[in-house]
Amino acid sequence: MKHIAELGGPLTTNISRAKRIDWARRVLRDDMLPHVGIADGDEFKKAYFTGYMANRLIQAALGRTVEDDRDYYGKKRLDMAGALLAQVFRLQFRAVIKDMEKLLEKDINSQKFQPQQQSSAGIKLEKYIKADTITRGLKTALATGNWGKDKDNNVLKTGVSQVLSRLTFASFLSHLRRVTTPLDKKGKQTKPR
Question: DSSP alpha helices (H): ranges in the chain?
Fold first, then answer.
């Protein structure tokens, strides 16, 4: 910890040693192996996992164990249906909020909006919410298979959902067992094997 605090940290020289060590502890807690845990008591888990990784590496280098195959599909990460639908829902919900803000701001600026004095009714938000935005977004994602968009309106994933082929039983089983490996079209990459 002290070694990391001496190597890095904020670049100002007037920061005390205790603050540098606190900074190093925060970096190790939050940025190193975040999947193991980021709570205060997870340092021992991270140390154990780092030792486990080093042990596996040394065992493979000495030839005592076989190296892992990076193309083995049993150890690949899968995007489950719930997480994918939550991603689309989140994007569409943000669009609903953004549209609602624009409509409210437009009404406020055009003097159509008169705050009701001493009324318990308040603002009726129903007229500012486009009710079909989320439904339309989910239907479009499921129909086209184009999943999510970034800031530049580019599709993040394609081919996520497909119409199930039921031409024959063999094609049905083949379609269910199909695995799609996502590869970027941009940049230099190693060929899939």
Answer: 2-7, 17-31, 43-61, 81-109, 133-144, 169-176
